[in-house]
Amino acid sequence: MGVVYAVVNQKGGVGKTTTAVNLASCAALDGARVLLFDLDAQCNASSGLGVERSTIAGSMFDVVTAHDPADGARTLEDIVVATEVAGLSVCPATIDLAGVDLSLANVIARHLRPDPGGHGPVPRHPDHQRPGGS
Q1: Which CATH number fits domain 16-120: 3.20.20.450, 3.40.50.720, 3.40.50.300, 3.90.1860.10?
Q2: Residue 28 gets which letter from DSSP?
Q3: What pTM was computed for the model?
């Protein structure tokens, strides 16, 4: 099993994307296999790694809003793009991510949506249970 790093901060302009791209690149250059998820509608991680919108088959928006892979919905495997850095791939973002809140607003049980790999609902981690066990 690999290591997962998340670079998050609610405030903009604090270097999240720069940090994520540089960490991913350094790890790949050190021999690790790295998959970077670009979940920002500004798409700077994707474009910073040389991904051009016109060349991608799908984006994180397509995966997050996918209903059923059997109906042609995109999975992570469908959208992964190799970069010029050996061992570094990216799941690219597009401007469509800006509207993901609206796309999912009326989806019943959206927290039980299939996982991005298309393997069924993502189970809630036991440490992340809400009071009362829900």
Answers
A1: 3.40.50.300
A2: H
A3: 0.75
